[in-house]
Amino acid sequence: KQEVTQIPAALSVPEGENLVLNCSFTDSAIYNLQWFRQDPGKGLTSLLLIQSSQREQTSGRLNASLDKSSGRSTLYIAASQPGDSATYLCAVGISSGSARQLTFGSGTQLTVLP
Amino acid sequence: EAQVTQNPRYLITVTGKKLTVTCSQNMNHEYMSWYRQDPGLGLRQIYYSMNVEVTDKGDVPEGYKVSRKEKRNFPLILESPSPNQTSLYFCASSQGGARGHEQYFGPGTRLTVT
Q: How far is CA A84 from the centre of its chain?
């Protein structure tokens, strides 16, 4: 069964720092990996989607990488801002026949201090 | 505006009283799913649907029912809610097909069963 782990569970950094969030998964047979942001009491906002054939995706100050063989993904946030404070979740897409499912990590709670 | 909507956003009910949480998307997506989010357990998939009249169990389907009579709607039904179903529920949708597509999430429904 696919397991997704995110380390650290919580992270606090001063404004302006570059930071890396980690995601690891146990089964490399994935078809994509998606990073989400969740603000308190709100839904999930998709940040980046990496297909299994891709190595990385970039959007603004965010860069996500994927190494399927080692079962790892990282989310790099450049020049962090207080507005980046949120919980960041990674989810791997797995397929079984015609079925497709997302398995989520438990998230990293990020606080960017002004 | 492309979105996934859920109703109600907050619900407090008593054990055994049947309830339905509605989910609707306006993006003509084939794939829809329901998740629950609990502290320490993360997001877990309850049910998913590949298309109209096609539904299947996720990781935690016990105590829930779903139906997909129309492409845009995917209601979650709790026939006899119990306190262990107190949770934050999310509906999600994405395009169908073999290629993994970005999932879009609704704002969440916070359910309390007393």
A: 14
Identify whether the C-beta of residue B6 lies closer than 8 Å to the C-beta of residue B107: yes
**Residue-wise pLDDT tens digits, B3-12:** 999 999 999 9
**Mean pLDDT over each residue of chain B, to the nearest integer:** 93
Widest pairwise Cα distance in chain A: 48
pLDDT of B87 over the 80 cut = yes
Range B40-46, long-range pairs (CB < 8 A, 24+ positions):
B40/A106, B41/A106, B42/A89, B42/A104, B42/A105, B42/A106, B42/A107, B43/A89, B43/A91, B43/A102, B43/A104, B43/B90, B44/A104, B45/A101, B45/A102, B45/A103, B46/B76, B46/B89
CB contact under 8 A, B42 and A36: no
Cβ distance of B48 and A44 shorter than 8 Å: no
- Per-residue pLDDT at B40: 83
A 10 A CB-CB count for B61 gives 16
So what's the pLDDT on residue A100?
65
Nearest residue on chain A to B6, alpha-carbon basis: A43
Q: Which residue stretches of chain A have pLDDT < 70?
A: 95-100
Cβ atoms of A77 and A21 within 8 Å: the answer is yes
Q: Give the DSSP letter of residue B16.
A: T
User: Quick one: which of A62, A29, A44 has its CA closest to B93?
Assistant: A44
B40 interfacial to chain A (CB closer than 8 Å):
yes
Q: Phi/psi at A39 (nearest 5 deg)?
A: -90, 155
Question: Would the pLDDT of B99 be above 70?
Answer: no
